[in-house]
Amino acid sequence: MNTKQIEYVMAIWKCGGFSQASKELFISQPSLSQYILNLEKQLGATLFDRKTSPLQLTDAGRIYVKYATQILDCYKKIEQEIRGLSYTTSGHISIGASTYVAQHLLPPVISEFKKKFTNVSISVKEMLHEHRQQAALKGETDFFFTFRPIKDTRIEYLHILPERILLALPPTHRLVNPETLQYQEEIAIPALRLRDYHEATLPFENDFPSISLYELRDDAFVVTRSEGQLRNLAMELFNQLGFEPKIVLESKGIDVACAMALKGVGITFIPETTPRFVNFKRHPIYYRIQEYDNIRYFCVGYNKARQLSLLRDEFVNTTVRILKSPVLV
Question: 261-271: per-residue pLDDT in tens?
Answer without folding.
Answer: 999 999 999 99
